[in-house]
Amino acid sequence: MAKSRKNRACEIKDDVFLMPLRNFLESIKKDPRIRTTHTALYLTLYGLWLENNASAFFPVPRAVVMQKAKISSKATWHQAIAELDEYGYLKYCPTRQKTNVSTVSLLTQEP
């Protein structure tokens, strides 16, 4: 039996929202550089991305992200997010001003 248009539309929408997570999980299988801190941080950022309606760039309030990802050190935060950026899992745009919030974009390329 053929799928209805509604079901196909839901599948396409789900693929768009799941693509960054699927690609990340598939890529880290082959990437020995990834630690549990990276995974916790990425999953937290993925949740924020969903909360921000899958925006290309979305705000990342450091204190909130650190708490949700169970990261207790600012040094660990800076190292992990910089490494995820360096390894090509996301694009991090830090702000140097305390009044502004840094932004992140999850990269959706295939692993």
Description of the structure:
The structure is a single chain. A three-stranded antiparallel β-sheet has the order 1-3-2. The mean pLDDT is 88. The radius of gyration is 16 Å and the shape is globular. The chain is built from four helices and three strands. By secondary structure, the chain is mostly helical. Helices cover 55% and strands 9% of the residues. α1 packs antiparallel against α2 and α2 crosses α4 (74-86).
Q: Count the strands?
A: 3
Helix percentage: 40-55%
- Estimate the strand proportion: 5-15%
Could you say which structural class the secondary elements and strand pairing correspond to? mainly alpha
The ordered H/E elements are HHEHHEE
**Tally of DSSP helical segments:** 4
| Gyration radius, rounded | 16 Å
Side by side, the strands of the main sheet go 1-3-2
Q: Low-confidence spans: pLDDT under 50, at least 5 residues? A: none
Mean pLDDT: 88
Give a short account of the largest sheet: 3 strands, antiparallel
Architecture blueprint of SSEs:
Blueprint (H helix, E strand, L loop, with lengths): L4 H24 L7 H16 L6 E2 L2 H8 L4 H13 L3 E4 L9 E4 L5
Antiparallel strand pairs: 1-3, 2-3
Question: Which structural traits does this protein have?
Answer:
single chain, 111 residues, mainly alpha, 3-stranded antiparallel β-sheet, 4 helices, globular
Summarize the structure.
With 111 residues, the protein is mostly helical. Helix content is 55%, strand content 9%.
